[in-house]
Amino acid sequence: MNMYLEEHSEYVFRIRKRPEYVDDLNEISIKTTDLYIHGDTKNIQKLSSFSKIEKLWLSYVNQKEFEAIISFVNPKMLYIYDIKASDLSSLENLTKLEILEIEWNTKTTKLWDVSKNKALKALYIKDFSKLNDISLIVGGRNLSILSLSGGNSKPLKLDTLKELSALKQLEYLGLSNVRILDDSLEPITKLKGLKKLGISNQFPTEEYAKLSVMLPNTKCEKFNAFAPLGSPIAGKNVMVVGKRKPLLNTREDAVKLKKYEDQFKALQDKYK
């Protein structure tokens, strides 16, 4: 696993690394490299003078504010939280962008032309309540890292994952609280270079078993009959892999777990 992937596969913008929020751009030096602003930060037009910006944190922006701010900058890393914009095409102008994370958008139904971001290596999309079309993701031919995630209470609802099969250079793929209409993980079987798959337990057991055979060089907790819980829940310490499967205890439920192991192996044998 390369250094880039090792450092960034789980998350990029650690909150402790974020600079202090700036209420007025007149208060800071134009030589700053890391900046955190809101859509209503004062003297926002001064951003055009901040030529050394490499990391930008942006929160609480509407469509007009978003387009204005993006027109002034071209960072390597951009994090946006709470963006009330249906049109994200302004992002196509960010030619230096390497890492992009956008969290919480209640307006847009589709992405932008990711092929315009030729330097983009890592893309994180989280909590887009109306997003249903990710077809433009196929343009992200330089992406090493992709994470698609629903919110804490609402899943990201997509018709299919078929577009992901074009991203053959992916090394890390994250799918969390994602509901797929066809319930199929088949497109992921095309990603032979995938080193790590982080995926929630929302798909049929057979889909995980198939992937475990088709992607023998990929690390994934769900490539087994059951996976450990981060911390016990009501005495249960593992989850059986597959949607609607139970939580169990490795000691008290050993017989049941053996049965699930046998079933998982039978599914794997089907695809060998």
Molecular structure report:
The protein is an alpha/beta fold. The chain has helices at 3-8, 63-72, 205-214, 254-271; strands spanning 34-38, 55-62, 77-84, 99-105, 122-128, 145-149, 156-158, 172-176, 178-180, 196-199, 226-233, 236-240, 247-248. The two termini are 26 Å apart.
Keywords:
272 residues, alpha/beta, Leucine-rich repeat, LRR (right-handed beta-alpha superhelix), 8-stranded parallel sheet, 3-stranded antiparallel sheet, 16% helix
Secondary-structure map with pairings?
Layout: H1 3-8, E1 34-38, E2 55-62, H2 63-72, E3 77-84, E4 99-105, E5 122-128, E6 145-149, E7 156-158, E8 172-176, E9 178-180, E10 196-199, H3 205-214, E11 226-233, E12 236-240, E13 247-248, H4 254-271
Parallel strand pairs: 1-2, 2-3, 3-4, 4-5, 5-6, 6-8, 7-9, 8-10
Antiparallel strand pairs: 11-12, 12-13
Got a strand count? Answer: 13
| Second rung of CATH, namely the architecture | Alpha-Beta Horseshoe
Give helix and strand order, one letter per element, not per position. HEEHEEEEEEEEHEEEH
Described by strand count, sense and barrel closure, the largest sheet is: 8 strands, parallel
Q: Give the CATH level 1 class.
A: Alpha Beta
Put the structure in a nutshell:
The chain has helices at 3-8, 63-72, 205-214, 254-271; strands spanning 34-38, 55-62, 77-84, 99-105, 122-128, 145-149, 156-158, 172-176, 178-180, 196-199, 226-233, 236-240, 247-248.
